[in-house]
Amino acid sequence: MKKTLLALTLGLSSTFAFADFDYAGGSNISNWDIGGEIAERCVVDVSGIDRATNLDLSLQEAQGTVGVGLWCNTRGAKAHATYSSSNRGVLENEEGDAIAYTFSIDQSGDLSLTANQTIEQMTGQGTAHGYQRKTMKITPMVTGREFAGIYRDTITVQVAPR
After folding, report:
1. Checking CA distances to 7, which of 21, 73, 85, 148 falls within 20 to 30 Å?
2. What's the confidence (pLDDT) of residue 49?
3. Rounded Cα distance, 158 and 60, in Å
């Protein structure tokens, strides 16, 4: 019974496999379209000494920190870079004392990180160009009357195509 069923199944499969094949009017050429899509994306690379910077908090002047490099696979020369701060734009010590600061990058002017800041920042683009790296500068708003201590904040950047 099993052999008969197997033979019947193979016979039917063979019939259906060749049922639509045009032996008489067929061609020796065939073509079809192929393709796919690559989604837009941007990449950020931050360089610096262990990605940490010791600011001179005795000076109220712009101080270079890390280099922020952006690259996108779009043809645009700029991307949306959104900067945010863990401490909402202040350097803070363990006791909770705070020093406000501003930052600037890629001709942005002095900006506060009390709220997220999105700027249009230069990028490398396409497959032949590298990153466009710009130095972030921080200006601590010190008065000379701050309490002693180690003040810190963490800045995050997220990049997206424009």
Report:
1. 21
2. 58
3. 27
Residue 153 identity (one-letter amino acid): D
Q: Where in 10-154 does DSSP place strands (E)?
A: 42-47, 63-72, 78-85, 90-92, 98-104, 111-112, 117-122, 124-125, 132-140
- Cβ neighbourhood burial of 125 (10 Å; 0-12, 13-18, 19+): buried
Residues in contact with 122: Cβ distance below 8 Å, sequence separation at least 6, in sequence order: 70, 77, 78, 106, 132, 134
pLDDT level of residue 4 (50, 70, 90 thresholds)? very low
Question: For the CA atoms of the chain, what is the radius of gyration?
Answer: 31
Question: Do 121 and 78 contact (CB within 8 A), yes or no?
Answer: yes
Contact 85, 158 (CB under 8 A): no
In this structure, the strands spanning 155-161 and 78-85 are antiparallel
Report the 10 Å Cβ neighbour count for 82.
14
Residue 140 has pLDDT above 60, yes or no: yes
